[in-house]
């Protein structure tokens, strides 16, 4: 079923709201907050793994109490402080990027201060690189390396330079397992996000298909409305609005081509009696019968219009007067011989026809229509069921 005019007016804003809502889901503030929350979960989990690996290493080398205190403060408290800061920032996305660089800076401090233990250092560095690459892509790698390098230099400044990459097997095993778990967790989060994006894109695709179908229905409706605007609803012929457009156009074309044009005005005789006898429905059937007769016999270049009430007007371009008279007689005779069946009765009627021709009877649309109308009036005066060609000397102005 075609949509209503109200639905047409709603399509544009509905389309805008749909696109805006989908864009908001895929980008914008909601995406920024999702990124902050996701990084908070990953940071908390990775910090637990990192701190455990560092604790195993520190226990093996006999770290000082201050080092243990700093370890607890950093890896247990910092994730919550960074999350609190990003969620309340005017721009959560920029704040979270700064948080990731803070992570890299502090991790670098631990690497330098603990004298570069191999597996803990690798685990922490690769975790920082993955986090910032997940959020910023390739352009985040250089800032992360700079933050790590700065942190390492700061750690060396605090504890002095020494290279001690060796770690015990429990530390090594835990770091390897921790890296594997972190990679799996990150992949799982990425997979879940990809599924959400695919679902959003699928919803968008289905929404676009629905909108395309609705737009196609609207185009069909617009074509119907356009057709209805220039056609008479009862007879299917063109209406007077279309006539006002087509007659000047055809006259201009015939004037340019030095071709004749005839206007033919028809009126059903005693149509009021038909309505009084058979009702308006019976009269409508007579009108439709005449319209069908004209539709079946006019040329492709001819224009048949319902001029008003029981009056019809035909525009016949490139038709000489002699041919117009012949065609008018054929239509008059065919309609007189036609019996319209209605409610068990046969309605018989006749038609009177007046003809005016361009350029002999005038060059202006209004003048030609008036001449055809005068010729029709004369046909009525002569007894109806006749064809009269306009002649200035015979029909008084």
Topology readout:
Blueprint: H1 5-26, H2 29-61, H3 65-87, H4 92-113, H5 118-136, H6 141-159, H7 169-230, H8 240-257, E1 261-268, H9 271-297, E2 303-308, E3 311-317, H10 321-336, E4 339-342, E5 345-348, E6 351-358, H11 365-381, E7 387-389
Parallel strand pairs: 6-7
Antiparallel strand pairs: 1-3, 1-6, 2-3, 4-5
Summarize the entry for a quick read:
The chain has 397 residues and is of the alpha+beta class. It has helices spanning 5-26, 29-61, 65-87, 92-113, 118-136, 141-159, 169-230, 240-257, 271-297, 321-336, 365-381; strands at residues 261-268, 303-308, 311-317, 339-342, 345-348, 351-358, 387-389. It has two domains: 5-206, no CATH class; 240-389, 2-Layer Sandwich (Alpha-Beta Plaits).
Supply the key terms.
Alpha-Beta Plaits; 10% strand; disordered C terminus; 70% helix; rod-shaped; 397 residues; alpha+beta
What do these coordinates show?
The chain is an alpha+beta fold and 397 residues long. The chain folds into two domains: 202 residues, no CATH class; 150 residues, Reverse transcriptase/Diguanylate cyclase domain (Alpha-Beta Plaits), CATH 3.30.70. Helices cover 70% and strands 10% of the residues. It has eleven helices and seven strands. The strands form two sheets. The chain has a five-stranded mixed β-sheet, sandwiched between helices. Helix 2 runs antiparallel to helix 5, helix 4 packs parallel to helix 6 and helix 5 packs parallel to helix 7. The longest helix is centred in the middle third of the chain and has 62 residues. The radius of gyration is 45 Å and the shape is rod-shaped. The two termini are 53 Å apart.
């Amino acid at each position: 079923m075609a949509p209503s005019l109200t639905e047409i007016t709603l399509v544009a804003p509905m389309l805008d709201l749909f696109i805006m809502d989908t864009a908001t889901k895929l980008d914008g503030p909601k995406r920024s907050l999702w990124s902050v929350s996701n990084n908070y979960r990953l940071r908390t989990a990775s910090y637990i793994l990192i701190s455990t690996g560092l604790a195993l290493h520190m226990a093996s080398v006999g770290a000082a109490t201050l080092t243990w205190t700093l370890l607890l403060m950093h890896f247990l408290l910092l994730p919550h402080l960074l999350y609190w800061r990003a969620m309340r920032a005017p721009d959560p996305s920029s704040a979270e990027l700064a948080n990731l660089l803070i992570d890299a800076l502090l991790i670098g401090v631990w690497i330098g201060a603990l004298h570069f233990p191999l597996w803990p250092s690798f685990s922490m560095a690769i975790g920082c690189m993955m986090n910032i690459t997940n959020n910023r892509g390739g352009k985040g790698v250089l800032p992360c390396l700079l933050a790590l390098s700065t942190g390492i230099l700061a750690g060396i400044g605090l504890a002095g330079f020494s290279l001690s990459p060796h770690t015990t097997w429990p530390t090594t095993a835990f770091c390897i397992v921790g890296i594997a778990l972190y990679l799996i967790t990150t992949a799982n989060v990425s997979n879940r996000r990809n599924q959400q994006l695919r679902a959003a894109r699928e919803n968008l695709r289905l929404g676009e298909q629905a909108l395309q179908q609705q737009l196609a229905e609207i185009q069909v409706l617009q074509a119907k409305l356009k057709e209805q605007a220039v056609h008479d609803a009862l007879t299917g012929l063109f209406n007077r609005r279309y006539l006002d457009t087509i007659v000047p156009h055809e006259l201009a074309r015939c004037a340019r081509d030095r071709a004749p044009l005839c206007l033919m005005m028809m009126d059903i005789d005693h149509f009021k009696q038909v309505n009084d006898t058979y009702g308006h429905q019976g009269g409508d059937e007579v009108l439709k019968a005449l319209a069908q007769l004209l539709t079946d016999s006019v040329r492709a270049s001819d224009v048949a219009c319902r001029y008003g009430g029981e009056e019809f007007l035909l525009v016949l371009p490139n038709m000489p007067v002699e041919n117009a008279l012949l065609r008018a007689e054929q239509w008059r005779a065919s309609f007189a011989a036609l019996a319209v069946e209605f409610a068990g009765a046969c309605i018989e009627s006749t038609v009177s026809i007046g003809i005016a021709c361009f350029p002999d009877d005038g060059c202006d649309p209004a003048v030609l229509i008036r001449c055809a109308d005068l010729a029709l009036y004369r046909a009525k005066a002569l007894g109806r069921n006749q064809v009269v060609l306009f002649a200035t000397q015979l029909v008084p102005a």
